[in-house]
Amino acid sequence: xxxxxxxxxxxxxxxxxxxxxxxxxxxxxxxxxxxxxxxxxxxxxxxxxxxxxxxxxxxxxxxxxxxxxxxxxxxxxxxxxxxxxxxxxxxxxxxxxxxxxxxxxxxxxxxxxxxxxxxxxxxxxxxxxxxxxxxxxxxxxxxxxxxxxxxxxxxxxxxxxxxxxxxxxxxxxxxxxxxxxxxxxxxxxxxxxxxxxxxxxxxxxxxxxxxxxxxxxxxxxxxxxxxxxxxxxxxxxxxxxxxxxxxxxxxxxxxxxxxxxxxxxxxxxxxxxxxxxxxxxxxxxxxxxxxxxxxxxxxxxxxxxxxxxxxxxxxxxxxxxxxxxxxxxxxxxxxxxxxxxxxxxxxxxxxxxxxxxxxxxxxxxxxxxxxxxxxxxxxxxxxxxxxxxxxxxxxxxxxxxxxxxxxxxxxxxxxxxxxxxxxxxxxxxxxxxxxxxxxxxxxxxxxxxxxxxxxxxxxxxxxxxxxxxxxxxxxxxxxxxxxxxxxxxxxxxxxxxxxxxxxxxxxxxxxxxxxxxxxxxxxxxxxxxxxxxxxxxxxxxxxxxxxxxxxxxxxxxxxxxxxxxxxxxxxxxxxxxxxxxxxxxxxxxxxxxxxxxxxxxxxxxxxxxxxxxxxxxxxxxxxxxxxxxxxxxxxxxxx
Length: 639
What we know:
five-stranded mixed β-sheet, Nucleotidyltransferase, domain 5, 28 helices, alpha/beta, about 5% strand
């Protein structure tokens, strides 16, 4: 046996030296031996924009203008006063409105001052100066009431700190990040302070935003959208909806309250009254609508609130109700399959990466809070069902969930029912999904709500199920009796969902449906096709805020309204149309302002909760209410 010091081939050192390169093994690195992991698609290199190579013709840019000799930038300041011009540190003419250097050649200055960019920048700068003056004035009043630490600092420093804090809150950036930006933000010679001291300014910022909302809705009719959540913490939000003098629909958060435990209906009603009547100073007769989730606590709250707000129209959220239609389907095999399918992608990064490489599509994403999220996953599964079975052939992905899915697919009877249930869900719930999303916006939805819901009744009667028809024919394989049995099974799956829908909209939401049916009279593109008579205008009495005197005025103005609304395109913005015709139809326009405030859903509250969830994670659970409220209000109200 050769010793360890001898070459394995039995050759001497000199002989190894004389061997040709082809027989001599090159040394291998440890990195060559170990397996390299597969990089994610997110690991790709970022494409950096670069200048065109030498020899390639560049685009013709703006010609460089040389400054004239014998004329100083200070001369242009005297020649063009009040134009936001100044001399910068490089002794160049600088436009504060546009934040750029300007040649002090006269023609260049004149061209710059006539530009739209300069005009908009000048307006922005004027608003900024006015805003800073308002902040300084408000700080003086705040000092008189609270005498905070730092009240002796110069106004410019304190105003700057308020503006920085407000910008951080609007962007959803944690206040603790201010320390990281401090060096950069202090470059303009105005000092900030530490994060704890910046937090001391939160009550002022929150109070200022509340005062802005209060001023915006003063003396106007409003509706409220309120709801509670437990997703982040126990919280109650109240959103006010109003119409500005320029006919712009606005929605602002006026209260976000953090709670120790869920409230009773009476407690919710008390908070609504405290916020709207006491804090915001809104007269009870100007509160004309309330949109909310149909949870029992909210319904109790509305019964209590109606004692105070007698003109209020109570609207249970249509979108929430439509979302629950899908939950009432009877699809046991699909429920079991979808639970494991969603769990497999939620818990296994390897499964998500394998799916993406197999299909080229992003992996299914599911959210417990997003309406119809499960349907979206199932609709994608319907299209990629063949890829799903291929994916499950991989033994190395999410073993527990994959085993459950294979057990269903390996059972012919279960697999057949799974396909029928999946096809029935995709076909029959699609109209409900579209209606849910159509009714969750912030626009003038009162004009189209009735048609959206009525279309669902038509869809139920029509039974247009293309995927179910194709699937039953394929599974029956020419057996008509078997095909009918499968169709009957699909109908059995859907029946509980349809019954739930009819129960809610034929009974519980019937008063709201009558209101939205009457609201169609305010659609300028549809009113003539409805051929309304004076007696039809009586249908508007379903709105508590329309007394008989208002309805009589609308009857008198009806012929003029029908004449003006002749041949109005359905593509026109109805709010803009009413704004433009307010002078010709004063009574109808005045009434329309009220109708714009009525919505079929409480989705606005859900959007507030999404901001709350995105902005405050578990590691910020000790954030005080003034911080949370100020951040969410500024983010939502500045959209």
